[in-house]
User: Which sequence fits this backbone?
């Protein structure tokens, strides 16, 4: 990320001498220094001197006003963020007073740096889901988000969605070239809706057929940002390391970005959706129960879990899984498969996939068949989601998605699995339980062998796929997912991106 800003002109008395100026802070003498990357100040005190600093990239706003006590003096206030525990960004400010010419010169230099930073958004489209979570989106935006955007000088066009299809309508009819980002104030469901609207619009503008399985979508031309106000806020957590609303807003204001990954999901010859998480089996059964209790808010998920795991019987399906992954993960996958295939109910073989290109060799697919109860595929590995924030120099692995499938096991073991998933632990990447097969893939397909009648209760469940928490009923009991890394630029607070420590 480029550091914005320019040095202060050093022209006699009306500007800064050697980029150091003498001002006052709370009636105490102060030396303020401005460099290309940092603003620092040393307060002179008879008992103890104190030196403070802030990166210029962490400045939110610069303000000046007339000093009511001295008409020849100006008050210069800098607003910035400091990172607190759990990666929360806290608003801070410091006010300096000094001669009009010096304070205005410093203010101009700092503001020019903010204006010249190409990463910072100038204008945003904001989409608010008024009923997401506990219907707190509009209130949080008005009380927390809007004042921050206003203080930072960012223009916003706010749309409160009125229905499930309103987001798509808003995106299709909006001139995206007039904005630097799209912000959604909601849960993860709106992220799914927003991405599908954007990628479908882009395919249409490019004249591409979404039903063509060989079509790879290009990277989005507009960045997105998640302000967490829903019952599920995984996207915000993955980008910011916390669920704090103000932190999400400040991450957007400062303009640091990472790139999220996506899947394209097909069933038969039909495109289904773009996704960041796929769930089937017992997990989609659980979400199907939960969908009927949306009016209960967040409590609906634990209540549905109690019903699913303690009352209902475990549904087992005979599945054929085909997958391929990047070469870097072949040894890791092989080790996991050998351990898993000690259970003689499962078989493995290989299959050649015909190439659709004259210059590309056919790929080898690994085929596994046996009884399974659940499947989860994530756009980012669980270990990456954890380590991205707690290891500042860590580079997230994006060459493959993490696919976890479960053989029949006790209800207690499945409950433990759900708990670990909710806590975002790295267990499934590093130490998967005996009943789980953790694979790292960039394409896979699932086919239900000997499916039940499509109109029966079990038949409907076999054809149900949860995509980002949205329930899809497939025409056939099979689907294919292809993984595409780095397609979604998203505002973030990731230490390895921001360079901020502590």
Assistant:
């Amino acid at each position: 990320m480029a550091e914005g800003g320019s040095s202060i002109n050093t022209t006699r008395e009306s500007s800064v001498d050697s980029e150091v100026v003498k001002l006052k802070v709370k009636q105490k003498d102060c030396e303020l220094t401005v460099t290309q990357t940092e603003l620092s100040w040393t307060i002179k005190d008879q008992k103890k001197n104190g030196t403070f600093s802030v990166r210029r990239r962490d400045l939110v706003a610069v303000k000046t006003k007339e000093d009511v006590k001295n008409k020849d003096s100006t008050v210069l206030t800098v607003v910035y963020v400091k990172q607190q525990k759990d990666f929360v960004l806290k608003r801070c400010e410091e006010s300096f007073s000094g001669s009009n010419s010096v304070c205005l010169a410093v203010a101009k230099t700092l503001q020019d740096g903010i204006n010249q930073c190409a990463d910072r958004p100038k204008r945003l489209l904001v989409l608010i889901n008024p009923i997401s979570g506990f219907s707190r989106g509009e209130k949080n935006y008005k009380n927390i988000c809007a004042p921050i955007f206003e203080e930072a000088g960012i223009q916003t066009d706010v749309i409160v969605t009125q229905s499930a299809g309103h987001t798509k309508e808003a995106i299709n009819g909006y001139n995206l070239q007039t904005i630097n980002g799209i912000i959604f104030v909601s849960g993860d469901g709106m992220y799914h809706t927003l991405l599908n609207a954007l990628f479908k619009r882009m395919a249409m503008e490019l004249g591409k057929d979404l039903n063509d399985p060989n079509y790879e979508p290009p990277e989005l031309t507009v960045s997105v940002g998640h302000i967490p106000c829903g019952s599920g806020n995984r996207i915000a957590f993955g980008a910011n390391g916390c669920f704090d609303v103000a932190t999400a807003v400040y991450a957007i204001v400062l303009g640091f970005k990472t790139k999220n990954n996506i899947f394209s999901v097909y069933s038969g010859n039909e495109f289904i959706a773009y996704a960041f998480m796929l769930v089937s089996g017992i997990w989609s059964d659980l979400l199907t129960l939960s969908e009927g209790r949306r009016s209960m808010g967040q409590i609906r998920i634990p209540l549905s879990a109690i019903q699913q795991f303690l009352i209902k019987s475990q549904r087992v399906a005979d599945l054929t899984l085909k997958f391929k992954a990047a070469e870097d993960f072949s040894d890791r996958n092989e080790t996991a498969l050998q351990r898993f295939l000690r259970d003689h109910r499962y078989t493995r073989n290989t299959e050649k996939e015909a190439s659709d290109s004259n210059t590309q060799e056919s790929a080898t697919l690994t085929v596994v068949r046996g009884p399974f109860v659940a499947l989860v595929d994530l756009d980012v590995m669980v270990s990456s989601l954890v380590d991205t924030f707690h290891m500042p120099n860590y580079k997230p692995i994006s060459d493959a998605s993490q696919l976890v499938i479960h053989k029949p096991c006790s209800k207690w073991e499945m409950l433990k699995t759900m708990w670990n998933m909710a806590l975002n632990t790295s267990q499934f990447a590093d130490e998967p339980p005996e009943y789980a097969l953790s694979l790292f893939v960039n394409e896979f397909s699932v086919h239900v062998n000997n499916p039940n009648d499509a109109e029966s209760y079990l038949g409907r469940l076999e054809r149900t796929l949860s995509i980002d928490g949205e329930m899809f009923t497939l025409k056939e009991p099979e689907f294919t997912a292809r993984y595409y890394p780095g397609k979604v630029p998203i505002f973030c607070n990731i230490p390895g991106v921001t360079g901020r420590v502590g």
Observations:
- The first strand starts at residue 20 and ends at 25.
- The two ends are 19 Å apart (CA to CA).
